[in-house]
Structure prediction request, 246 residues.
Amino acid sequence: MTLLVALLSLTAACGGAESDMSATQADDGPTKRVALWGAEGGFVTATMNVLRPPRAVLYSDGLVIVDASKQLKLTDAETGETVASMETYLTGQPPTAEPKPGAPMVTDVPTTVLGVRGKDGKMLEVRAPALDQVADFYPKELSEAKKLMDGLATRAAAAGTDYVATRVRMVAEGAASAEGKPAPWPAGVPEPSGMVDPIWQKDIEGAAVSAIIKAVPAGQEHGRSLFKTSSGALFVLSWRYLLPDE
Prediction:
């Protein structure tokens, strides 16, 4: 009887240990953004506004994705250094920075977005309107943060590999007055439905991804992606790969 109790206790202890390990692994969760550089707004088309990805985004596992088209893997040390530097540059900055008095007025240009995940686990983002045009009127830390992320983007463009994903964001923009001969709507790709004002967007996966990539190859000019739906409506069809956390 004493031996049986001991065996039961050991079994329960082992089961408890296994449960604790599973819980720990579940809490780790997927990789998260830890640093980013992107843009918002500006004088761009509705399609570009929806499809525009971060210029460069760094994930907790060291993966760098640039323009949702190129990727590069950093070492743990490089990832940690990048996050630490971005945190130094952005800590204490307001959510929306303003240039010093005397800065020239600049309109219709994108707002630069810089971000880093702090030690508290929260994403700190700073927006700087027209940073490229009036950098001298902003704190130098913002330009340094952008320079750091720009360096990652340059590395990925030169030595990275193509980024692909199993999920795609597609956008159909109404083109009733477009010139040129439209192609039939690609089989397997969802047709726009409901309100289109002025665009219709949908995230797709599976066979639809292969179908849209075949119909509109990556990098193809929008002027060559004119399609007619089964109802006769004309649309310009565009897409990009979704990022891991989208």
